[in-house]
Design goal:
The chain is globular and about 75 Å long. The protein starts with 10 loop residues before the first helix and ends in a 5-residue tail after the last helix. The longest helix is centred in the first third of the chain and has 41 residues, at 69-109. Helices cover 65% and strands 7% of the residues. The protein contains 13 helices and four strands. With 351 residues, the protein is mainly α. It has helices at residues 11-36, 42-50, 69-109, 118-152, 164-178, 209-213, 221-230, 232-235, 237-245, 252-262, 264-287, 297-308, 321-346, and strands at residues 53-56, 63-66, 187-194, 200-207. Strand 1 and strand 2 (63-66) form a beta hairpin.
Amino acid sequence: LRKPGSTLSIPGAVKNSSRDSATARMQQEDSGVALVGNAEYPRYMEERQLGGGVYKGPSSGSLKHKPNVGYRLGRRKALFEKRKRISDYALVMGMFGIIVMVIENELSSAGVYRKDEFYSISLKSLISVSTVILLGLIVAYHALEVQLFMIDNCADDWRIAMTWQRICQISMELLICAVHPIPGHYRFIWTTKLANKGGGIGSKSVPYDVPLSLPMFLRLYLICRVMLLHSKLFTDASSRSIGALNRINFNTRFVLKTLMTICPGTVLLVFMVSLWIIASWTLRQCERFHDEEHANLLNAMWLIAITFLSVGFGDIVPNTYCGRGIAVSTGIMVSSILFFLPIKVVYSEPY
């Protein structure tokens, strides 16, 4: 047997030599990066830090970054926390605007100042600033929703997530939250039939703040969103895993149904008291310019109470279509809750 002149003819030696050459090239590349500096190779350093793979595109021979599963899960968790904070800030801005609106209307109704004075304009300007911030927070919230959709579905283009349903939802939320009383003193003539005064026709000069202030209470839908994002059913990983296996969508409706099953009395009490106070104040705003009896908040609360309790003494009745609409809506909502809640509690399914 003749001794081979080179070790390259041995298969094992070929593998070892190729491994050694690859190691040498990696060492040279690392040393080159160290000599030149990390600023010259930002893409290379980013890929090594993220732990992602590098692959060549199908058409072009350029290198692209492909994040791994760990990076996506970490990014998703960070977006979840950021979305929760944005939702909390939006609720704070929405409640702040409602509280300032109520204070401004009560002070002007009590005769502390007029609508064209500095204090009224300052409070309305404060409402406008909070409204602009709220609109920005809503846009930021839905931008995070789109990013989460892209991560969950491995999408590269954000336009895939912009469905007609999402576009309509964003437009509706922006429209609801954009309505607020504007700074200034603007009035219109409100004519209605006075049922409490013999059926005569009455016309009053009413500020535009009345029809612009009442829709601000629709911002309270943000409470349901915050309840969903802070619910243990939504934040707990085990609950979400069980729900995904059983094809259960953890949305606001599911969380409210769970709360109604766990503590129906508390949910009913909070809902009825909140609706009673809000409906009484809005009814007072609609009726106080035409009838002095409705200028008293206690009379408005009495009217709402006898309406949703189906008593209806008839001693106080609303005059305007705005007040009648509020009374009818309150009666329908409370009657539906009182009728369907016992059925839901008795025939509820375990979660």
